[in-house]
Amino acid sequence: MTTDPRDPRPLTGEPLALDLLNTRWAGTPVNDLLAEPDGQRIWLSSAGLTDRCQDTDAALAALREARGAISAVVQDVLAGGELGAEATERLNAVLRHGRLHRELGPQGPAARVEVDGAEWLAAWLAADDLLDLLGRGAHRIKRCAHEACILHFLDTSQNGRRRWCRMAVCGNRAKAARHYGKGRG
What we know:
CATH topology: Jann2411-like fold
CATH architecture: Orthogonal Bundle
Strand order of the largest sheet: 1-2
């Protein structure tokens, strides 16, 4: 997947669910790629979905709904407790707009997504991706450890100890702050 050169987000290339979640990033006010329709086109391009998904107002509303649902589930996961009923229902509401249809074709097993309306495809794909991430290990979904960062990532490190969305930015900021604090104390 190649990130769209117009994409202003500081972290791209995460699994689809987290990539959608990361359409909001730190700033004053918080930056939101989906605040405008052009941001939807940029996200669809970066996610490799331009040819498959609509960039209509209805699709943008569906993406925002999916992002909110994904955020609620991820917050529950990061809190270490059980998934709350509200977060579960929000994600399930998005998932009810589609289903995976599997069949055996001439080339072998095939699967295609069927959605209630084309505007739900990108939102459903992102919500379904979250289910896959949870199944692979919810403990690998993390929020950047830098206090000013609100980005999320999938920790694919061997030992599961990744702390920063990007070491070159957030990790270095934290190291510099620690170093500066030691010099003052």
